[in-house]
Amino acid sequence: MPIYNKLVRDLIPNVIELDGKRFVTYRLDDQQYITEVNKKMHEELAEYEAAITSDDAIEELADLMELIHSAAKFHGVTVEELETVRAEKAVRRGGFEARIFLVEVEND
After folding, report:
1. How far apart are CA 82 and CA 106, in angstroms?
2. Is 58 within 8 Å of 47 (Cβ atoms)?
3. Is residue 67 within 8 Å of 107, Cβ to Cβ?
4. What would the pLDDT profile of 31-43 be if each residue is shown by its tens digit?
5. How many CB atoms are located within 10 Å of the residue 61 CB?
6. Stated pTM of the model
7. For residue 8, which of 68, 33, 59 has the smallest C-alpha distance?
8. Is 8:27 a contact under the CB 8 Å cutoff?
């Protein structure tokens, strides 16, 4: 039986069961959960970076968004509250759409 030892989406056990396969899972405590969410974010980011097509990139971005939603909820905010923080920061510091690459800044 392959060993995965990773956080999976909530319906994956159902998918495995429908395939007629046996599996072992357990529920993570808070510290284990946020640790695994963080690991999964890194995994999905690597998959996004490796994506060849825009369709593949979009799939990986959707996975990252799902994890961001989960992390926000874990930290006690809604996605809407997170979006408010993002928007306020964009007003104060801008976004990344201008594609500005800072090379250096003169010292005083």
Report:
1. 34
2. no
3. no
4. 999 999 999 999 9
5. 15
6. 0.89
7. 33
8. no
